[in-house]
Amino acid sequence: MRLIKELSIFSYVKYFSDIRISFSLTLDNKKLKTNKYEQPGNMNNVAEYININTHPIDSADFRTYCKQVLDENGVLKIDKFLTDEALDSVRREGESHAHLAYYTRAEHNVYLQPPDAEYDLSHARNRVVNSSKGCITTDQIPESSVLKNLYHSSAFKDFLCAVLDEDALYEYADNLSSVNLHYATAGQELGWHFDNSSFAITLLIQKPVGGGVFEYLGNVRDADAGEMNFEMVDKILNDEVQVNELAIDIGDLVLFRGRNALHRVTPTIGETTRMLVVLAYNTEPGVSLSESARQTFYGRLD
After folding, report:
1. 3-298 CATH fold
2. What is the pTM of this model?
3. Sequential DSSP letters for the chain
């Protein structure tokens, strides 16, 4: 039996309600940068998409609490982050654009690196797992979409910077990689792996009938120190240790630090497709996803 670990901000919401603090829903205009997706001085219209009363993303207290949860646990789940209307809009977009998805199936090791000839193929460094999914890219998502308005919102990015402890966040320079919608049909899964990036930001749009469970174990390796912890990786692949399950519902926002945490999504069960949005940012401007990665994940370069 696996350990189920529930990490959310319900405790903050209760605290927030009990002491009846009133937060302004506007930010200082000096903090906002106008772009084609937003209007200044009104929380960039994100109140149309976010349940702002329970998730006051402009509140210093709320940001501090979210950062504390992420720092302590390596994962933050904000329940019902999207409004029902926004969630339904994205789901309908996903259904209408599903025919555009590029589907891939790949075998890879958990380190997402080419095999290392110094080790046997059965060694944890080279053991193969499977991943399969469909994906539509930034340029296939309508300009008027909730997803693009949220992604480009200065208020949302300010919140993310505060929680992730980053000075700034930038969109990808290529036109494919910033906002992706992933599809996992019956039997499709995301195999065990470590992320190359320091953080991931996702929104669950549609749950399958069964499966599609996010499983993880934190602090398995220390990538910066070059400690790969092959022994623990082997145990996880052999299902010899308890791992955490994160119960994610539709509309939930998840911030996850997966560079040193081994994680996967179990195979989808049933006819309902799992739909998940990935909001990808860089900490430096002008960065594109590599051509090899674009060709692998999207089947094209632009």
Report:
1. Jelly Rolls (2.60.120)
2. 0.87
3. -PEE----SHHHHHHHHHTT----S---GGG----TT--TTTGGGGGGTB-TTT--TT-HHHHHHHHHHHHHHSEEEETT-B-HHHHHHHHHHHHHTGGGPEEEEEEE-TT-SPPPTTS-TTSTTT--EEEEEEEE-GGGS-TT-HHHHHHH-HHHHHHHHHHHT-S--B--SSSSSSEEEEEE-TT--EEEE--SSS-EEEEEEE--SEE--EEEESS--BTTTTB--HHHHHHHHTT-S--EEE---TT-EEEE--SSSEEEEPPEESSSPEEEEEE--BSSTT----HHHHHHHHSS--
